[in-house]
Write a structure and sequence with these properties.
- The chain starts with a helix and ends in a 7-residue tail after the last strand.
- The radius of gyration is 19 Å and the shape is globular.
- It has one domain: 4-Layer Sandwich (Glutamine Phosphoribosylpyrophosphate, subunit 1, domain 1).
- A hairpin with a 4-residue loop joins strand 2 and strand 3.
- The protein is 35% helix and 24% strand.
- Helix 5 crosses helix 6.
- The structure holds aspartic acid.
- Aspartic acid binds next to strand 8.
């Protein structure tokens, strides 16, 4: 009886501590890739399409988080939506290798128990983020690559497609030309904090334009392009993957936050503007800490991005989106079903 009472008091105390430590109900941040986007920001055709896609992605994520859904479900739903959208360098619309093939990478990580899954170099899995999640949940491994990853995804009942499914008129043109660096689509990523205090992060990409056959970037590498830990932050990166791998950017940010007691903004700023800039490592990241604080720095001319933050007891979430330096506010959280 006394033991039971003691346990109940402990659980109550834990509950109270937790609700004080999380300042918001839930939060979500999305990126659609970083790079030379100065022309895109004012492009009368492309910019509205990108803003609309970011807005839809926020609604999809908020629809899950506002009803008490899990961070991992929000990340999966948002990244799947972006993979199916040909505007982005992930799933349909992915960039091409030097051989004119689509080779896709994706990863997901759950902050609660550090469960992680990734696939690299897959050519026939329609939604690589779902394959990454299957690796996390249904296999004893963290990363599967190439043919093995494709067999595993098919075995898990995931949809497979011919490699040509990933092509769009825009990417087919690149196969012909393989040159327009400034015309590249963007990688996608999403980080979420749910109402139970769990963080999750997911990233999906076709990689760098003209990459060599078999090249793997930072996105599927846990700790480089993707990381989540409930004790610190969730991070998803975009940019020149080789630099992000060498600086273990996603884990580096969590480590600075945890061990140096930097804020998420300080830690993210340091890595993007000091460590990567020192080596011309072009790109950016999105990050959320365990309290729902947001950082979205980039050292390129732009990063397609959007965030939402629902303060406790606030009538609606604060929503923002941007392509270049300026952030626009978006209307609130009346979820459209
Ligand atoms: N980081 C990705 C890679 O290196 C590409 C990108 O984010 O644009 O594969």
């Amino acid at each position: 009886m006394t033991k039971h009472l003691f346990l109940t008091v402990l659980l109550m105390l834990f509950g109270i501590t937790r609700s004080y430590s999380q300042a918001c109900d839930y939060a979500l941040v999305i990126h659609g890739g970083a790079g030379n986007l100065s022309a895109t920001e004012d492009d009368p055709v492309r910019a509205p399409l990108l803003y609309a896609a970011m807005d839809s992605a926020l609604w999809i994520g908020e629809g899950i988080l506002s009803k008490g859904g899990k961070a991992e479900q929000a990340v999966l739903a948002v990244v799947t939506y972006l993979e199916n959208n040909p505007l982005f360098n992930a799933g349909k619309g992915a960039t091409v290798t030097a051989d004119g093939v689509f080779e896709l990478d994706a990863a997901i990580m759950l902050g609660k128990d550090l469960i992680a899954g990734a696939v690299a170099g897959v050519t026939t899995v329609k939604n690589p983020i779902l394959a990454a999640y299957a690796v996390a949940r249904q296999s004893p491994h963290v990363m599967l690559s190439g043919k093995g990853a494709e067999y595993f995804a098919a075995e898990q009942g995931l949809e497979t497609v011919d490699n040509s499914y990933f092509a769009t008129p825009r990417t087919l043109e690149w196969i012909e030309q393989l040159k327009k660096e400034s015309a590249k689509n963007g990688t996608v990523g999403c980080v979420a904090l749910d109402q139970s205090g769990n963080l999750a992060s997911g990233t999906s990409t076709g990689g760098m334009l003209r990459k060599r056959w078999g090249r793997i970037g930072d996105a599927p590498i846990i700790g480089a392009g993707t990381y989540a830990d409930n004790r610190s932050c969730a991070v998803s990166c975009t940019g020149h993957g080789e630099y992000f791998i060498r600086h273990a950017v996603a884990f580096n940010l969590c480590a600075r936050y945890k061990y140096l007691n930097e804020t998420i903004q300080q830690a993210a700023h340091h890595i993007i503007h000091h460590e990567l800039n020192a080596e011309a490592g072009n790109g950016g990241l999105i990050a959320l800490d365990k309290n729902g604080r947001i950082a979205m720095p980039f050292n390129s001319t732009g990063m397609i991005r959007a965030s939402l933050y629902k303060e406790k007891n606030a009538p609606e979430s604060i929503r923002q989106t941007g392509i270049g330096k300026t952030l626009k506010s978006l209307p609130g959280n009346l979820f459209r079903e």
